[in-house]
Specification:
By secondary structure, the protein is α+β, with helices and mostly antiparallel strands. The protein has three helices and four strands; from the N terminus they run βαββαβα. It has one domain: HPr-like (Histidine-containing Protein, Chain: A), CATH 3.30.1340. The N and C termini lie far apart (33 Å).
Length: 88
């Protein structure tokens, strides 16, 4: 299992379009992927669960991946967050 702390710096946080991008990226991998923010956690492959966390700009969360392609999964999701989901 790999665990990584990430910070959302895009203006919208993890809502609507960014959440959809995050979930689509996570779903491309076989590994189980979860997000934990404070006392809440969510399946990173579920749009309702991720949006239910209500993570806005500046929020910090833990990304956990466990499975055969966990390293690639975490790297792809980290890159997506770090490039602000393609937002200008």
């Amino acid at each position: 299992m790999i665990e990584l702390e990430l910070v959302l710096t895009n203006a919208a946080g993890l809502h609507a379009r960014p959440a959809a991008q995050f979930i689509q990226t996570a779903a491309a991998f076989k590994s189980k992927v979860a997000i934990q923010a404070g006392s809440k956690s969510a399946d990173a492959k579920s749009i309702l669960a991720v949006m239910g966390l209500g993570l806005g700009q500046g929020a910090t969360f833990l990304l956990n991946a466990d499975g055969p392609d966990e390293a690639e999964c975490v790297a792809a999701l980290k890159a997506l967050v770090e490039r602000n989901f393609g937002e200008g």
